[in-house]
Amino acid sequence: MKTAKGKGPARKDTKEALKPVDDRKLGKRKADQSSQRRAAGKQKKGQKDPNKPKRPPSAFFVFLEEFRQTFKKENPNVKAVSAVGKAGGQKWKSMSQAEKAPYEAKAAKRKAEYEKLINAYNKKQDNSADDESEKSNSEIHDDEEGGGEEEEEDDEEDDDL
DNA sequence: AGCGTGATTGTTGGA
DNA sequence: TCCAACAATCACGCT
């Protein structure tokens, strides 16, 4: 199953259909977020791999990065990250899929790079037995042309909503 | 002095 | 298949 790249986990389709509202918070996330930073800041018990690539930012985060700058410009007095999160989240939902399309496309790129990083990371893990140096790069062919960056496929489906 | 937290949604990974 | 945790940010507060 390809987990439907654009649709995401089946849970969304099922649950969201039943609960179109953003009740996804489940009330557990709050507590989780607390430990979230702890784990991230202090890393998990055995996750002491500084080379391990972090998860790619979702389209929302990509949009949020830009939104943060705009938000700060509009509200230089507001320094609360939560404010940006709320405003960003609200606007994000207000945006149409077409608007989110470019962000999703960028997020897709991040994900692609993430997979590549993970691949290299996995290779590294294998080589880390001897030495985590870069010598094993011979396996990794990084013939990635930074200049020859092809544009995203403009495959936006205009579904009227 | 230093790190945890708060808030957003999405995505990935593990069970 | 589904749940849970984590991705950035940034100033403030508590230990």
TrEMBL record:
Keyword DNA-binding: yes
Gene3D superfamilies to which the protein is assigned, alphabetical: High mobility group box domain (1.10.30.10)
DNA-binding region: 53-122
Molecular function via GO: chromatin binding; DNA binding; structural constituent of chromatin
Domain HMG box per the UniProt entry, residue ranges: 53-122
Localization terms from the record: Nucleus
CDD domains for the chain: HMG-box_AtHMGB1-like (cd22005)
Family of the protein in this entry: Belongs to the HMGB family.
Protein name as it appears in the record: OLC1v1033705C4
Record organism: Oldenlandia corymbosa var. corymbosa
